[in-house]
Design brief:
The chain is mainly α and 94 residues long. The chain has 2 domains: 34 residues; 35 residues, no CATH class. 57% of the residues lie in helices and 0% in strands. It is flat. The mean pLDDT is 75.
Length: 94
């Protein structure tokens, strides 16, 4: 991979910024490598979201889709209805 870095500051300020961005990129790379290893070993479930570890995100995604379903003609739920739905449909985190 190749990256171009642009920053308003030069010298020490840029070096500090560059080190931080590089650290984040390396952490992301390592996470991807570990996820691939775990997929190969059967530790991690394949898919957009892990149903065992990311169930809260999955619940929110499902709710978002239901709110924007074209078959409802743009009908939106109130905040109270939304919170009630989440409380009754949110999978329990183990």
């Amino acid at each position: 991979m190749e990256f171009d870095y642009y920053h308003m500051e030069s010298g020490e300020k840029f070096e500090e910024y560059f080190k931080f961005v590089r650290q984040v990129a390396m952490e992301d790379y390592e996470l991807c490598e570990k996820a691939q290893d775990n997929l190969g070993r059967g530790v991690y479930s394949e898919g957009i979201l892990n149903p065992e570890k990311e169930n809260g995100v999955s619940c929110e995604y499902d709710r978002f889709r239901s709110l924007h379903d074209p078959t409802t003609n743009g009908a939106q739920s109130t905040r109270t209805e939304y919170l009630s739905w989440c409380a009754s449909n949110m999978p329990q985190i183990s």
